[in-house]
Amino acid sequence: MGYNLYWYQQECVDSIFEYFRHKKGNPVVCLPTGTGKSLIIAEFVRRAFAMYANQKMLVLTHSKTLVEQNAERLRQHWPQAPYGINSAALNRRDTLEPIIFGGIASVAKSWQRFGRVDVVLIDEAHLVSHTETTMYRKFLDNLKEVNPHLVVIGLTATPWRLGYGTITDNVKTAKGELKSLFTDICYDLTTPDNFNRLIAEGFLSPLTTKRTKYELDATGVHIVAGDYNQKELQLAVDKDTVTAAALDEAVVLAADRLHWLVFASGVEHAEHVAEALNRRGIPAGYLHSNMPQQEQDEAVRRFKSGELRALVNNNILTTGFDFPELDCIIVLRLTESVVLWRQMTGRGTRIAEGKRDCLVLDFARNTERLGAINHAYVPRKPGTKGGGRAPVKECPACGNYCHLSVKVCENLLPDGRRCGHLFNFEFKVKTTASTESIIEGALPKLEIRKVDLITYAVHHKAGSPDMLKATYYCGLSKFDEYVHLEHPGYAGKRAREWWRLRDGSGGPVPRSTAEARERVEGLRSPTHLRIWINKKYPEILGYCWDGSAFGTAKPVTGGAKV
């Protein structure tokens, strides 16, 4: 029944349940775009109803597309799910079913019709404001009048709000403290290492860049509420000469790309860019909020079917747009919002058959100002100093722009190889670069190692419970793994799963590390390990038990010596 979850999807669902076993609050899970949040929602809902059948749950978001996607994924994963949909755009107003997928604008004023609600999941949780008078906050406050124990769970790829810092932070203002709805981050795969691991393991598509000679000029455009004034920005960039210069270059750089998503700076700008692409022989359509919904849907359909090679949009396809085949993003919009920047570029990280990567042509220099898509960056809070340009250096071998701290250029070349140029740190910062490396840090180098011997010991660390230390000897190398059997939280849960995977006796999991050390002789041993080798401390990512080296050789019996 349903889908098989990837390892990180299962971990994410487990982390939510583990959070509520030990804490009270409103947690957030942070997952890069393209990692399957809709399936995570579906599995959490299924498991929650298996454990507690008599409850009411709402899954809310801001767009009809996401409402449809999330509801459909639950139907596919759990066909018997008792769900309904409440969305004006979808002509559905269900309220009585135990599970309701809804748009916040549709449900906001009809909170009484849902009765007692136990759990609310919010997709794109970064859109929930700290301000208590906003739509989400007022709706949830009303639900809490019926059920003071209401639980709220957020999901997002970008856990910040412009000017407020992380969405779990409370913010002090001149009028007092604004309390965040969310209290904790219980699972996070948006860090640079985790993001790169997902790419290396094939769960996300890499983003790559090519240097653009032309750059948009926003001189004189004011910053309002933390971002460029949209009317002024459109006036600055919506010019025939500007559009021609950018698109003439884009047509050459993206000549081998089949599906182009273009981000424009305004309604008229989107229409003008689409017209200019058509004149250049690129079948293109446009999409903006002034169009009727039926016309918007038709434009997306034509793009996904291949009838249109390019789709130019303004403020529509930054979230919730699911088209894995997308292999080119053209950015003709400047922004100071890290959230918006990552949402735009995140459209290209979904994987598809035959897709090698997604090309990003950043004519707006957003990467230079805001950093790579996986950069560990948090927008500053009100009253704090910071900002400035991201330090950039140019690779003399391939022309890619990389972060100043990068030692090796990881730019993907047309033949599929990595550039690999070694920097000697004598190159100066370029403040006029049009693109910087869109993904920060080296991608994980994964190696398969045969296990010859395993030893076990009790590891003592001051201030922490004892751990079981497993040391794997692979030829001349050795790799350590620490098993936290005495940890009360999620690490303890994973340690118990680690033990059960190896213990063929079916007996109880040891309650202490000392007991585990006495019983290791009966554990089965992996024959091979998959290891993230180019880390300061190499990390074991997978185990092979049948001697096939993860399917690359003929299976054999037996494992390593203990």
What does it look like?
The chain is α/β, with parallel strands linked by helices and 562 residues long. It has three domains: 7-190, P-loop containing nucleotide triphosphate hydrolases (Rossmann fold, 3-Layer(aba) Sandwich), CATH 3.40.50; 195-403, P-loop containing nucleotide triphosphate hydrolases (Rossmann fold), CATH 3.40.50.300; 446-544, no CATH class. Helices cover 27% and strands 21% of the residues. Strands 4-3-5-2-6-7-1-12 form an eight-stranded mixed sheet. Strands 13-20-19-16-18-17 form a six-stranded parallel sheet, sandwiched between helices. Helix 1 packs across helix 2 (37-51), helix 2 crosses helix 3 (64-77) and helix 8 packs across helix 9.
